[in-house]
């Protein structure tokens, strides 16, 4: 059994101090007056689940681009789901993979490229050679974390932002620190996890944090309420182990160790959910189907369920029957229709 699972009653000892180098005086800024309660906006009323756009409307446009995010907001998604890595010069950028090879015309690790170089990459042609003109020029498609916040603040309605912190990172917890610094610069209130939006603050961007790596969530726990922390969980398969080994020397020799570490990380993430250290459980769709009893127990214990990646309306119906409250999808419009009862 993992250390987290063994020490359920003493989990508080795992809490960390506020991130090193973060100006904690910024945390004393006044909270926005009467921030909107989650689920109370007109857009949410009547829906059986909230819909998050997975890397934007990634089924239609290249993932993590301005076009994908704008399309998701236009389609009425309740929120965006994004992945963050740090560039070599410390800028949080929206990229899923640790390397740029799959979704750009470049090559190499995000961590080894600076932001100026990444701005020169073509991040759209691999999927959509020509984007609609009103979704921004080609050189505007790579998105930093700050770019996303600006886009959401200017959206003219309440939105939620699910931030996945990608680990392992060569920068360690500097990733979390940089993300928090950016949020504070935009007026984020740690107590409510809300950024006021609109000309008079009548709207809000509500931020939650996700990771497959329990250490990331524990690092944030002294600044972020449990109901804004999401432990991502996925069954450890042979294919996942093989993918992790792709860039490792002596892959066959270390395979048993890597598999054991991955399974231990999964157990630690599950323990965070069972122990209430995080308020949101983030299983993949396959995990839900394989562990239906556990997922139902999490719902019964008061956890919010945010399930990824759900593109089939029939799967959405199954999840709603279980009690899942939030769904992440590549096709926001399709899933919004599935979770909205017809008159």
Structural descriptors:
disordered N terminus, eight-stranded parallel beta barrel, PLC-like_Pdiesterase_TIM-brl, alpha/beta, 12 helices, GP_PDE_dom, 343 residues, phosphoric diester hydrolase activity, TIM Barrel, Glycerophosphoryl diester phosphodiesterase, 10 strands, single chain
Describe the structure.
The protein is globular and about 45 Å long. The chain contains twelve helices and ten strands. A hairpin with a 5-residue loop joins β2 and β3. It has one domain: TIM Barrel (Alpha-Beta Barrel). α7 packs across α8 and α11 crosses α12. 33% of the residues lie in helices and 15% in strands. The protein has an eight-stranded parallel barrel with strand order 1-2-4-6-7-8-9-10, surrounded by seven helices. With 343 residues, it is an alpha/beta fold.
List the helices and strands and how they pair.
Elements: H1 3-6, E1 50-54, H2 66-75, E2 79-86, E3 92-94, H3 115-119, H4 145-153, E4 159-165, H5 174-185, E5 194-197, E6 203-211, H6 214-220, E7 229-233, H7 238-245, H8 251-274, E8 280-283, H9 285-290, H10 292-300, E9 304-307, H11 313-322, E10 326-329, H12 332-339
Parallel strand pairs: 1-2, 1-10, 2-4, 4-6, 6-7, 7-8, 8-9, 9-10
Antiparallel strand pairs: 2-3, 5-6
Short description:
The protein has helices at residues 3-6, 66-75, 115-119, 145-153, 174-185, 214-220, 238-245, 251-274, 285-290, 292-300, 313-322, 332-339; strands at 50-54, 79-86, 92-94, 159-165, 194-197, 203-211, 229-233, 280-283, 304-307, 326-329. The chain has 343 residues and is an alpha/beta fold. The chain has one domain: Phosphatidylinositol (PI) phosphodiesterase (TIM Barrel).
């Amino acid at each position: 059994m993992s250390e987290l699972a063994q020490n359920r009653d003493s989990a508080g000892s795992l809490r960390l101090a506020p991130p090193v180098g973060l100006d904690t005086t910024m945390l004393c800024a006044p909270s926005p007056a009467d921030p909107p309660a989650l689920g109370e906006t007109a857009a949410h009323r009547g829906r059986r689940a909230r819909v998050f756009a997975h890397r934007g409307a990634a089924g239609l446009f290249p993932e993590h681009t301005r076009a994908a995010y704008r399309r998701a907001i236009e389609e009425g998604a309740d929120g965006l789901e994004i992945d963050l890595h740090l560039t070599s010069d410390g800028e949080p950028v929206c990229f899923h993979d640790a390397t740029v090879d799959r979704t750009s015309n470049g090559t190499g690790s995000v961590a080894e490229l600076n932001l100026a170089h990444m701005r020169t990459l073509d991040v759209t042609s691999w999927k959509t050679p020509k984007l609609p003109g009103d979704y921004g020029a080609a050189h505007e498609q790579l998105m930093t974390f700050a770019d996303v916040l600006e886009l959401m603040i200017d959206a003219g309605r309440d939105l939620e932002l699910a931030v996945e912190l990608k680990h392992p990172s060569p920068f360690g917890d500097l990733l979390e620190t940089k993300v928090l610094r950016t949020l504070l610069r935009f007026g984020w209130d740690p107590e409510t996890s809300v950024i006021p939006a609109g000309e008079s603050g009548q709207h809000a961007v509500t931020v939650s944090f996700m990771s497959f790596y329990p250490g990331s969530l524990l690092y944030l726990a002294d600044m972020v309420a449990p109901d804004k922390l999401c432990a991502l969980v996925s069954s450890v398969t042979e294919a996942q182990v093989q993918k992790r080994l792709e860039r490792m020397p002596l892959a066959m020799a270390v395979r048993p160790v890597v598999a054991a570490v991955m399974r231990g990380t999964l157990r630690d993430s599950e323990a965070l959910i069972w122990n209430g250290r995080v308020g949101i459980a983030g299983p993949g769709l396959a995990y839900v189907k394989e562990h239906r009893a556990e997922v139902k127990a999490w719902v019964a214990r008061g956890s919010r369920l945010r399930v990824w990646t759900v593109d089939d309306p029939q799967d959405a119906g199954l999840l709603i029957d279980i009690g899942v409250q939030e769904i992440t999808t590549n096709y926001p419009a399709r899933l919004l229709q599935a979770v909205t009862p017809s008159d």
